[in-house]
Amino acid sequence: MTFIIIKLHLNNLIMEEGKQLESFEAKIAAGHKIEPKDWMPEAYRKQLIRMMSQHAHSEIVGMLPEGNWITRAPSLRRKAILLAKVQDEAGHGLYLYSAVETLGVDRTELLHQLHTGKAKYSSIFNYPTLTWADIGAIGWLVDGAAIMNQTALARGSYGPYSRAMVRICKEESFHNRQGYEIMMTLAKGTSEQKQMAQDALNRWWWPSIMMLGPSDDQSPNSDQLMRWKVKMESNDAIRERFIDRTIPQAEFIGLTIPDKDMKFDEKTGHYSHGKINWDEFFDVIKGNGPCNAKRLKDRNDADKNGRWVRDAAIAYAEKQLKEKQAS
Ligand code: FAQ
Description:
Blueprint: H1 2-29, H2 42-61, H3 63-67, H4 76-101, H5 107-115, H6 133-153, H7 159-187, H8 191-210, H9 222-227, H10 235-252, E1 263-265, E2 270-272, H11 278-288, H12 292-305, H13 307-326
Antiparallel strand pairs: 1-2
């Protein structure tokens, strides 16, 4: 008897979950947003936590290679702009950690995963910033690629993530323009300055097109994410759009894309590119890039050195609360 009751109960639960999944998928198909308190499949929640936390980590690790040039910016104007940009990236990290927390995970746990090397962050931030032109190349290429991806993510199905993307994209557009303006100024400068810009483009081009994720045939998460409209386009589709947009910009300032096989295909209306070194990409995301160890150390140091500020802020907030409750 007990067995039959349990079986009936389980059947009911399965049917209930089937209905919930159906209505969840119908909502997504109709272009409605999923909000934190809505029912969602566990796999959707897990995928969002994975992707959004990697994104949040990328924003704050991305502050490090640029922060490297704040004290050496070539003028007060450049320094003020770079400071603002790096602060914006910290802000993006904060919006994103807040957005991930709506899925029932605490940022302390996510940061612990980052600091212990368990969590991924964007491959691109494991390359060094060797000259001032690298700051131009990051704004132009890295923010350019990030926007290409994120404007699509802003149409995605999870409300808190898609809304965070709207503001982030506006700020990334400013970052992108300041980077291009640095490159344009250098490209119009002395022959040494132009060479410095070309050298930065040579080093950042391939990592920038790789940061949009592995080719579609090597991307295990894309199908599910696209079915649930978390990702609106595949990695290769976004890469193609980024390349199509960036080549004319390089030509306009007289720089050369370091890909001898790159050519415009009249039939498709797109540029075709040379072979991407996916071995390098997978090696970097495994932790073997030129700066992985340094980025992790710097992030851990920043966390440790900033602890007293967080402790003081929490103590102050607790004191205010107690005073309010007592009055
Ligand atoms: N780096 O199945 P897929 C920025 C991993 S923000 C490291 O294709 P998915 C702003 C992937 O996690 C830049 N790992 O994965 C800024 C997965 O591993 P897992 C960050 C990568 O999720 C500018 C495995 O490979 N933007 O730049 C990378 O469908 C300047 C298989 O890959 C975002 O995070 C990579 N590049 O597609 C800040 C946007 N690519 O987790 C400062 C949101 C892939 O299964 C200064 N994220 N992997 O172990 C996304 O759109 C997606 O997650 C992709 C990857 C497109 C990055």
